[in-house]
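step=predict obj=Maelstrom domain-containing protein n=371
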Amino acid sequence: MAPKKTAFFTFLACYRDDEIKSGKKPSSYNQLRIKLLPIWNIMSDDEKYKYKDLALKYNNSNCTPKQPIKQITDQLKYSNDFWNMKKYVAEMFENIPNNQELLNKKFILLHINCHSHAGEQYYFPAEIAAIEFNLKNGLSRTYHQIIGISKIYPRGFSGSMREFSDTFHHINCWDDHPDDYQDIFLEFLTFIKGGIINHTDLKKGTLDLPYLYTMQSEIGTNMMKTNSSLEKLYSAAFPEVYAEHCKSIFKIGSIEQLLLEIKKKMNLHLEHQNLRPGMSVCDILEHDFYGLGLGCMYHELKDISFKCSKARVIQWMSNICIHINMYTGLNLIPGKHMATQLNDGSKLIIENEHLPLTAAELKLSKTTDFP
């Protein structure tokens, strides 16, 4: 049985982990003990509590000796981020003055399929999909990209990563896909920001981005993996950027909470629906993921569109809009709030709000014949 970790040891381990993240050669624990003991002795009980809590979490966990403290500190970080996110989203909705403002407010939904080795806590984006929408007009913009990792993936991870991809998205780590990480990253940030990116802010980690909403937890991915994979992409695109900056720009929100806050703002009762089978928040969001036409070309050709990140974000948006419509009479526009069914059984969504839709917008005469 591994020896129990003390709060002081956890304090040393966290300091050593910071050295590694900053690119320094890590000190030995004996060196750290001599250097940091005077600091530990003058720290307050409140300052030491964080490390006592980390030690307790480690001692009560099944962590292996390999990077145990890092795994626990990462869990604590994401736990803190999660509660900060819940507080921020709740306050954001409190500051929306009325339902009309709510209908016009835009949200970005995000899904990432990862190149993953779960045992090593390694996550890198294999596929990124994001959409911007509001309740009034439905979908306005989309982003989608499959990303290759064949040149940089840790070679010892290939077997486990292949097993993961076969299960969740069929994008193998050695497949040839776009891998200009800087161009991909900048294009993704430009979509999120809705405009030109300030490179100074990007390199300093001070870029202010909106919240991106994804599933709090689903099989194969969750908020922590989503955030971790984006941080990996950031560091691959700009390896000179200090590691902590890569962790500071992304704000990942829970789409489950987004739906709950929308319903709360519209004074829709939640408890009764959540007690009925098939009406939990997750059930609402995950409904009807099987349909041709919503996935990217890569997944459509493999006949596995339901594994596609693009299909998932589109269906999340559709399910939110359809559910709100059940209780408010929200005006749903086929092809904008939800996919429209085509004659061949496939589905169609209009991916850009500026695309022409009507005969007048297409500048067609009334006598125009269609094949």
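step=describe
Residues 271-275, 361-371 have pLDDT under 50 and may be disordered.
step=end
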